[in-house]
Amino acid sequence: MTIAQLNTDHAIDGQLKFVEGKGGFPIIEVDNGKAKATISVYGGQVLSFQPTGEAADVMFLSDKAYYAEGKAIKGGIPICWPWFGPDPEGKGRASHGLMRNRMWQVISTAAVADGTQVILGLSDSAETQAIWPQSFKFSIEITVSDTLKVELVTVNTGDQAFPITQALHTYFTIGDIAQTKVIGLGGTEYLDKVDGGKQKAQTGDISISSEVDRVYLNVAPQLTIDDGALGRKINIASTGSKTAIVWNPWSEIAANMADLDDADYKRFVCVETANAANEVIDVAAGSEYRMGAVISVTR
């Protein structure tokens, strides 16, 4: 569908329009007085969110990100679904599932009481069935206001249950990783993927001074990133999720990623809302499952 047709069907005067982004991908631009946001229809991916009055974007987006069919965009909120991490069946399918690297459909846009809502989605096709033989409707509901609400909705349209794991693989902008803490996970058990997946317990807040790749289990629904350099706290309130991933690649891995600048590891931290590890969700035939997060900024 062309940008002109998308605007005819879904633009909202004074709030939302479609533009052609890098790689020719359709981009949704929201500016509703409460916040600005950009959303890529490719990948169903929020790329930026900046509440009015905030000097810095809440989302990190790499200047070297790929904008090409078959590639994931490095930054914002990539979607991992219907599995998080490596192929759970060991069949060699792509890590993090089906959704990060394909074009979605615009289901609807609307001016709502607290801001602007965008719903993007995908249903199963012959292509997805060949990779993952399940019948589904999958959507992301995004509400841009002074907060950012993002919810993943899985509908099983088949006649048998299927298991999923999933994540909002969110990249948050921070002023300086050396002045950043992740609060709310003290005393929580986690799998340390940097140390062979060993299970450990978190002591106090998380400070990052080397590579971190941890899957936290049975987490509380409220986490906070204390962004000391920018003088703000980023709050993440999750629903339908008891798993969180904290990731920063640090210097060596960042230097080896072509879609990251060598120093980008100092400028972001991923705190991901997820169903992962031992939190596998069985979606019954004919039912739906919702997982999401509300992201806000306080000072």
Report on the structure:
- With 299 residues, the protein is mainly beta.
- The chain has a single domain, classed as Beta-galactosidase, Chain A, domain 5, CATH 2.70.98.10.
- 7% of the residues lie in helices and 44% in strands.
- It has three helices and 23 strands.
- A nine-stranded antiparallel beta sheet has the order 6-7-8-9-23-19-18-13-16, with no helix packed on it. Strands 5, 11, 12, 14, 15, 17, 20 and 21 form an eight-stranded antiparallel beta sheet that branches.
- A hairpin with a 3-residue loop joins strand 8 and strand 9.
- The N and C termini lie far apart (42 Å).
- It is an enzyme of class 5 (isomerase).
- One of its GO terms (molecular function) is carbohydrate binding.
- Its EC number is 5.1.3.15.
